[in-house]
Design brief:
This protein has about 130 residues and is of the alpha+beta class. The chain is about 30% helix and about 30% strand. It contains three helices and five strands, in the order H-E-E-H-E-H-E-E. A hairpin with a 2-residue loop joins strand 1 and strand 2. The radius of gyration is 14 Å and the shape is globular. The two termini are about 25 Å apart.
């Protein structure tokens, strides 16, 4: 599933599906020009990044209920609390496995958070 933008520059897909497994590439809240949306706002960037990542899962036949694992990469010095709060509100009742890390930074200036999702689309999967 290609969406253009940096995917075209780097020759990768926003998300791919192999059987019941969907992997979503690192996703950030950036505009058409590649600039960070909601500068300085960790929560807004987290919400937008997850919205885009979930849309990528849906485009490949999955849903938020199929999310098995999430990863949040935060720019060094960013406040992790708003990102975790956004995650809690979005995934309450689903409770996927999660890893949250601090990283040195991201190519688009002003990006504070990037997210990844792994999902398994199976009617009787065990969680």
């Amino acid at each position: 599933h290609r969406t253009g933008g940096f995917e075209d520059v780097g020759a990768y897909s926003r998300a791919v599906r192999a059987g019941d497994y969907i992997a979503v590439s690192g996703t950030a809240a950036t505009g058409q020009n590649g600039a960070a949306l909601s500068p300085g706002d960790v929560r807004a960037q987290t919400e937008e990044a997850f919205r885009r990542a979930i849309e990528a899962v849906e485009a490949l036949g999955g849903s938020i209920r199929d999310v098995l694992r999430t990863r949040m990469y935060l720019a060094e010095g960013a406040d992790w609390r708003p990102a975790v709060e956004a995650h809690r509100e979005l995934f309450a009742g689903i409770e996927p496995a999660n890893t949250t890390l601090f990283v040195t930074g991201f190519p688009p200036e002003g990006v504070l958070v990037e997210v990844e999702i792994d999902a398994v689309v199976a009617p009787d999967s065990i969680r």
